[in-house]
Amino acid sequence: MTQTMQDEGYVTADGRKIGGVMMEMKNITLRFGGVKAITDISFDIRQGEIRAIIGPNGAGKSSMLNVISGFYVPQEGEVFFHGKKRPPMKPFEVARQGIARTFQNIALFEGMTVLDNVMTGRLNYMHTNIVQQAIWGGKAEKEENENREVVEKIIDFLEIQSIRKTPVARLPYGLKKRVELARALAAEPKLLLLDEPMAGMNVEEKEDMSRFILDVNDEFGTTIALIEHDMGVVMDLSDRVVVMDYGKKIGDGTPDEVRNNQAVIDAYLGVSHD
Amino acid sequence: MPDQLIFAMEVTLNGLMAGVLYALVALGFVLIYKASGIFNYAQGVMALFAALTLVGIMEGQVPFSHLINAIFGTDVHHFSWSVPALGAILLTMAVMVFLAWAVNKIIFRHLVNQEPIILFMATIGLAYFMEGFGDMMWGSDIKKLDVGLPQGLNMVIDETTYGMFGYGFFIDNLDLIATVIAILLVSVLVIFSQYTKQGRAMRAVADDHQAALSVGVSLNFIWVMVWSLAGFVALVAGIMWGTKSGVQFSLSLIALKALPVLMLGGFTSIPGAIVGGLIIGVGEKLFEFLMGPIVGGATENWFAYVLALIFLVFRPQGLFGEKIIERV
To answer: What pTM, to 2 d.p., does this model score?
Structure first.
């Protein structure tokens, strides 16, 4: 990749303009005790891009996502966000920087309604003080209404109006995944991290989710990094793909480039070691 | 109206008042349980500690005076000042906030993701530590607490009921005040948890730590906040109970009265703590009044637990509990 491309971005096959580098991971190494989950991996995520991280089970994909979102702190390597080196941060601090995420095993507030869940995504947009909020005075009402408007827009967008008041615990799996996406979107993130957004879904649900991901990117211009098992889905969705295997990066490039990469084919189809 | 019925009415009223006091203690448990899934055994001791500190500050007692005297051979007991009630309450609250911070920093931060039983045991340890610490800090004498709350027979109720039934009800002013305070406290807590940003964040943390982190909620901040709130509730309970029966170490045992209240009301419901408290309060007073003479009295010690046991069989999540939860 040339220096000019680093600065100016590129234009995708379907004509979308991709900007400069938003997030850069440099030589990341993550260990759990003696086990290396990630070994010396570098890659970048560009403004407006849909970036996928793929790889077989146990390749270290989720660990990578956890490093980006601050849940894991790598032993070696540096993370750059908007060109600035990021010091080790707590996950909540990362979230406040504009990085929202979903989880592989769905982490929703089960006791709350869908609406309340999505509203929690707006917590960092509430600036009135506790007394104003409690007595519904001052700017608190205006602020709450503004936040509600954003949330309702997202709820409409993801087509979950009919379950707005339903407690999350009662929802089927596919809808929970969608609510989790809604909550992440409510934070109006600069970078959205999706950990296996389609895991465990049937074909129809997968198609819906793919459409939503594309629409989010298109409509809000949100940069998205996602992890996925399903190669077909990934190749259709993403602009560039990082391929991991056993904690190492074995490929990086457009879906077509990756598809024809021998190391990737070996990792996915298996290769005899003789 | 037959005498028996009038007495029963008075007993019921007194039971309601007693129930409010139980509920005050139960509230502290609910707050911490809701936000962190910890059953805080130390809640009763926190009430005792708050009351001890309040009295100590008001009377200008020198903290750790026994220790200081033993080490330096001095003989100090009191400063030359005393602090007015309101100022002392604010100072005590500051101490409780510091305590919340310290408890979180020293103990619970290191126990994140541990089993509930481990956390529970940590609070048992905390309870005994604080009991000893309170003793060392303020001494173990029984102290009188007077923050200026009215006490004794309420004349208005006495005269009104005398006019109505020819028999004046004995209602303690302090109990009336406790009722008003409890209503205020519950309203404030409900508004806080339902309508404020911090309340929303608190509910989020209660539900799922990871998810809360991912929407930008600081777990530490919320935990310190919740323990401070529980400290505040403990202070209120400490003032009420301390004024009623003196500040002494048996105060920490009121925690045991809160347990059946929680089983009845549900561990996760703020209104449940109040309703549970009222049912236990009225239940035990009425039962003592009606059945006491037949079974030989002293039913108040065990009645609450039997009632709670019956509830556990038929409705284990309590009256207002959200769902079946792991119990200690």
So the answer is: 0.83
